[in-house]
Amino acid sequence: IKNPTNRDRALQGIVTAQAAAGRFSDALKTVSAIRGPKEKAWALQVIGVGQVEGGKIQDAETTIATIEDPVAHARILAAFALSKANSGEIKAAREIASKISSPALKHWAIQLIAIAQAKRGDTQGAVETASSLEDPAWKADSYCKIAETETALGHVTSARQTLQEGVQIAASVTSSVKPN
Known about the structure:
single chain; mainly alpha; 0% strand
């Protein structure tokens, strides 16, 4: 394929298929042929997420370290943190999230961790994680999502209390890094 953009897109498709099949070493070789930095970062992100989902954490850490695009790097760190939270490794998840440089993406990762905790039935831990959010809009939104999860789990009384706290926090919001 002569057009560089079309070539990179085709290679991204190959990387996606290779990663989906668990052929990560082949996918990494394919990535080396991608010329565009954003296209390469996207492909590395696909591989890293696949590695995390496949339990290849050490390999994922190596892949993550090679991502130069800050947004792609932050997204893969968030996926990595969520994977740790889903397996109950909350301290490790929060440490990973703390490495994210973008404030909005860091808040998003912490919110994902809190929601994962709530889904595991650890409401107190979820609220504790959400309370660490510095941005009040993210904090309020996280409390509301925790309350929603509590309701789905049948914990209506505690869900009301969590929701009420979220509403109180939301009332104090004057500015935020949370995207609309």
